[in-house]
Amino acid sequence: MDGIINIYKEKGYTSFDVVAKLRGILKMKKIGHTGTLDPDAEGVLPVCIGSATKLCDMLTDRSKEYLAVLRLGIVTDTQDMTGTVLQSKEAVSDEALVKQAVLSFVGEYDQIPPMYSALKVNGQKLCDMARQGKEIERKPRRVTIHKLEIMEMELPLVTMRVHCSKGTYIRTLCHDIGQKLGCGGCMQSLVRTRVSEFTLDKALTLSQIESLRDGGRLAECIHPVDMVFSAFPAFRVRPEAQRLLDNGNPLKAGQTVCVERGTAGNLKPGGIASTADKYAGEDANACAGEAANAYAGEAANAYIAGTYTAEVNDKDAAGAQSALPVDGGQVRMYHSDGRFCGIYVFQAQSLMLKPVKIFAL
């Protein structure tokens, strides 16, 4: 089995607990999660299985969304309500002032990671040192709050929806908002509602996964690896170049056919349109013939028909550029039979597509 399972992590479980339990349910060892959630937090935790474990670091880097409740007037050592109270003050009661302080964190800011975190300094986890009563200086890290919405305000409680970059601690965001208001603050509760394409409404608990297994329906909850890269353009290798792909070699642009445009803006404008068969597994030349009808421009048609290769003259190459990715643009690469292979990057100077991460040869 290879793919991603969108787990709903329930309260009380660590992210490692989820992985350990899933290993027992699936009877397999090659499993990894894509970003730690605190034991008291709940929500989306994509878990990669089989060859999809190569995705773990990539998904960790994706932006995330949370629903958090900020409790003003209390400061704790863990920056959430599970910790020891260090300070208790009367919370600010001016809603307009609170709103102004909350929204001031939209954009980039330098966030100091909490002591109670899994980050390591000189090989030691900060949380281990914190439990020993130690506190050390931590360097601030630049994070981005892409969007911050106040969903409800019943002071001293503020419910917020946060869309943020990797490495953002929502506990610390709550703490920092409280510090800005002068009354202190901490996180009362946290639900992760989205990681990349994986959303809360489609997440399954471990017991639900177990039920699917018992009913022989496990495949229903395993998402294919290429789903994560659905915004990238999709290219299929031509049958005559399949051997190069099998060996993980770079490919000439003319040895591939674009079968889907994608939405990431990685293609030069004016050339590629979607093809109806997508990855149905037909012969690549048949696919190319279908796609050519939808493609704009003589150069694009020449490219799809196979007359564009790396040996074309400069004039033809310039005309065919509209059917190629932008320089440095990443694409999904598929075998000639439609199976997903991995992620490739286009290098305009050499007109080559080179492998970035291979999932299946």
How would you characterize this protein structure?
This protein has 361 residues and is of the alpha+beta class. Helices cover 23% and strands 31% of the residues. The strands form 4 sheets. Strands 1, 2, 3, 4, 7, 10, 11, 12, 13 and 14 form a 10-stranded mixed beta sheet that branches. Strands 16-20-19-18-15-17 form a 6-stranded mixed beta sheet. A hairpin with an 8-residue loop joins β5 (74-76) and β6. α1 (15-26) packs parallel to α6. The radius of gyration is 25 Å and the shape is globular. The protein starts with a strand and ends with a strand.
Termini Cα gap:
15 Å
> Which residues form runs of ≥5 with pLDDT under 50?
270-322
- Total strands: the figure is 20
Structure annotation, total helices: 10
- The general outline is globular
The main pleated sheet reads as:
10 strands, mixed
| Helix residue percentage | 10-25%
Taken as a percent bin, the fraction of beta residues is 25-35%
Radius of gyration: 25 Å
Sequence of secondary-structure elements: EHEEHEEEHEEEHEEHEEHEEHEEHHHEEE
Mean pLDDT: 82
Query: Based on helices, strands and strand pairing, what is the structural class?
Result: alpha+beta
Present the secondary structure layout.
Elements lengths: L2 E7 L5 H12 L4 E3 L8 E8 L6 H5 L3 E9 L1 E3 L8 E4 L6 H9 L3 E5 L8 E2 L2 E2 H6 L9 E14 L2 E8 L5 H12 L3 E11 L2 E2 L6 H9 L7 E2 L10 E4 L4 H5 L4 E2 L3 E5 L23 H11 L3 H8 L8 H7 L9 E5 L5 E8 L4 E7 L3
Parallel strand pairs: 3-12, 15-18
Antiparallel strand pairs: 1-3, 1-14, 2-3, 4-11, 4-12, 5-6, 7-10, 8-9, 10-11, 12-13, 15-17, 16-20, 18-19, 19-20
